[in-house]
Design a protein that fits this description.
Transmembrane segments: 28-48
Keywords: Membrane, Transmembrane, Transmembrane helix
Structural class: mainly alpha
Helix content: over 70%
Shape: rod-shaped
Order of helices and strands: HH
C-alpha cells in the first residue's frame, strides 16, 4: 500500500469518527465530515488502483 493511499485511508477513518461525534452532539456540521470522508475514500481507491496498475505494468515489461 502506498503512503498516499495510507494517508487518505487515515483521513477517511478520522472523518467518519468526527462525523459520528458531530451527529451525536446534535451538530449539523457532521455533513461536512461525511463529505470529506467520501472524498478521502475515493482518493484511497484511486491511489490503490494506480499502484496496482503500476505494479502490473512493471512486471509485464521486465
Amino acid at each position: 500500500m502506498s503512503r498516499l493511499a495510507l494517508y487518505a485511508l487515515v483521513v477517511c477513518v478520522l472523518a467518519v469518527v468526527a462525523a459520528v461525534v458531530s451527529f451525536v452532539q446534535g451538530s449539523w456540521l457532521g455533513i461536512v465530515w461525511v463529505l470529506l470522508a467520501g472524498l478521502s475514500s475515493n482518493m484511497t481507491w484511486y491511489y490503490l488502483r494506480r499502484d496496482r496498475m503500476r505494479r502490473q505494468a512493471s512486471s509485464a515489461t521486465g
